[in-house]
Design goal:
A hairpin with a 2-residue loop joins β7 (106-110) and β8 (113-118). The strands form 2 sheets. This protein has a 22-stranded mixed β-sheet that branches. It is built from 2 helices and 25 strands. Helices cover 9% and strands 62% of the residues. The protein is mainly beta.
């Protein structure tokens, strides 16, 4: 080791030790090695804590509001709830905790269109020396906005969006329904309409009992649970999470899941398209005319309601076996059979088995 390298290492070690000594001394005398930047300037921790305190609440108690047939709600760090009214009146209530410089939420009903919006303060950047601080501000209680709509009210458009909060809706009739939750769950019960879009970046999605002509669902990181639905077309995408489907009827279902299992029961579809990167696919009580399955790493297991001769088959696997009732094929063997049937099953598993059971 050269003298220059040795001196550099000794100097660096000395600086690190000296820095730790000064850091410890500063902490002992009440200092905090941290600063905070937002669009208004640079602040110390004490300034940040003061600015982070929720000193007031924007609130409207539950009250009767004008009727509406369009909804647009866009909030950050708040929950959104759409509930059925117990009478023929429309109601609304909200409670949003606010900090020193936060703007009041906007709530208005104009020409039958209800609008509610609230966003917290602008961008921020936080720097610290890697020391976790327990006194980082008071506990945060999420705000909420709740709407109560009379039963069987038909809405034209409904758009619900929350950056970090839960979105729920019950007994909702809307021609066009769009729900987006970046960091939070979506729970939809008994909803009907023409077009449905559900999107979540990091949270679970649940939808039970309803009908839409078109359903588009995109869930990046979270589980998806669908039950009791009918739709002409359904497009479901998941990046990392399990997909559970029960009691579904659709003209065409297209499901893509990168990392997670697909599990279904009592599924009826004219066309069923499935694609997975890493996860198993298991569907029981399966009524399908044309099924196509692509799985890179995982097993494909289907329990069909028809007899073996009711389907044409094209089954392929590289590292796995194929089992069709009493028929069995070992690794890297394919099976194709044309029974001159109206229904067709095509499945490919690169590293996994294919198992099909018929009546």
């Amino acid at each position: 080791m050269s003298k220059l390298v040795r001196r550099t290492l000794i100097t660096a070690g000395f600086c690190i030790v000296l820095g730790l000594v000064l850091l410890t001394a500063g902490r002992a005398f009440g200092g905090r090695p941290e600063f905070y930047i937002n669009s208004d300037g640079i602040y110390t921790l004490s300034d940040r804590m003061r600015m982070q305190e929720y000193t007031r609440t924007a609130e409207m108690e539950k009250q009767v509001v004008d009727s509406f047939d369009q909804i647009s709600i866009q909030v950050s760090d708040s929950n959104v709830h759409i509930l059925p009214s117990e009478d023929d009146n429309y109601y609304a209530e909200y409670q949003i905790p606010l900090r020193e410089k936060d703007q009041e939420p906007v709530f208005k009903i104009t020409d039958g269109a209800l609008t509610f919006s609230h966003q917290y303060s602008n961008y921020s950047f936080n720097y610290s020396m890697g020391i976790m601080l327990s006194d980082y501000g008071q506990e945060f209680h999420k705000g909420f906005i709740r709407l109560y709509i009379p039963q069987n009210t038909q809405l034209k458009t409904t758009t619900l969006s929350s950056s970090d909060g839960e979105i729920t809706a019950q007994n909702l009739l809307s021609d066009n329904l769009s729900i987006t939750a970046k960091y939070g769950s979506i729970v939809l019960e008994q909803a009907e309409g023409k077009s449905l879009s559900l999107k979540s970046s990091d949270g679970d999605i649940s939808y039970t009992d309803g009908h839409f002509d078109t359903v588009i669902l995109d869930n990046k990181y979270g589980d998806t649970n669908l039950s009791g639905l009918t739709a002409e077309t359904m497009n479901i995408k998941s990046s990392d999470g399990d997909i559970l489907i029960n009691d579904i009827q659709s003209g065409k279902m297209d499901i893509t899941n990168k990392y997670g299992d697909i599990t279904g029961n009592n599924i009826k579809a004219d066309t069923f398209l499935e694609k997975q990167s890493d996860g198993s696919c298991t569907i029981t009580d399966f009524d399908v005319k044309e099924g196509s399955f692509r799985n890179t790493y995982g097993t494909i297991e289907l329990f069909l309601i028809g007899k073996e001769q009711d389907y044409n088959y094209n089954l392929r696997t590289k590292y796995g076996n194929i089992i069709l009732n009493s028929l069995s094929f070992e690794e890297d063997e394919n099976y194709a059979m044309d029974n001159r049937a109206e229904n067709r099953i095509e499945a490919e598993a690169k590293d996994g088995s294919i198992r099909i059971t018929t009546k």
